């Protein structure tokens, strides 16, 4: 757990009181590497200077919005993201999750709930046993440590969600992992309704690890049940 507590977190919100509350709550839980920003510009500056492990992004910002910030962050970082917003609207939630965000919490929220979500997301993203660094498939090396697929000297990054899913599949290699189990691993207890998002992430994973994504040899669909990662102990 100490390794997770050392992870760097960036909270972005235009409300200074809320930022201070989040910062104090994280400090009280042992997260001492907490950065804050009140607008898109300063958030990007911090994100480019620090190896941020998790982002908390408000949707309403004075010089843009959280969706714009998310898309810019994704050009250089695949760290998990939780959206913070006062607008309890389904279209905002769908847009945020559709972009690939990892969680969504509506203001006002209990700081205890936010801390629990942060801890759970950090564990799901970075909590794999260090004795396992990755695996081989069709001449490609899927690296858990680097969150990337390495082939012929080329490195293709994995998103946070892709990393969680491929870890879960590898932990159950050559066995069926149900859709519910995969969604629970990637989205936690609020996984209902993510089946379509799961299909999108699986498609992207196939594009990165399969020689022929349209005819996969490793990431196999088991109709009506889920998926199976077929690999040998190379």
UniProtKB/TrEMBL annotation:
Any single Pfam family the record assigns to this protein: Trans_reg_C
GO cellular component, as recorded: cytosol; protein-DNA complex
UniProt KW Transmembrane keyword: no
Positions of post-translational 4-aspartylphosphate modification: 58
Listed PROSITE patterns: OMPR_PHOB (PS51755), RESPONSE_REGULATORY (PS50110)
Positions of the DNA-binding region: 132-231
Biological process terms in GO annotation: regulation of DNA-templated transcription
UniProt xrefs under CDD domains: REC_OmpR, trans_reg_C
Residue ranges occupied by any Response regulatory domain in the UniProt entry: 8-122
Highest taxon above the source species: Bacteria
Hydrolase listed as a keyword: no
Biological role: May play the central regulatory role in sporulation. It may be an element of the effector pathway responsible for the activation of sporulation genes in response to nutritional stress. Spo0A may act in concert with spo0H (a sigma factor) to control the expression of some genes that are critical to the sporulation process.
Protein name according to UniProt: Stage 0 sporulation protein A homolog
The species this protein was found in: Candidatus Monoglobus merdigallinarum
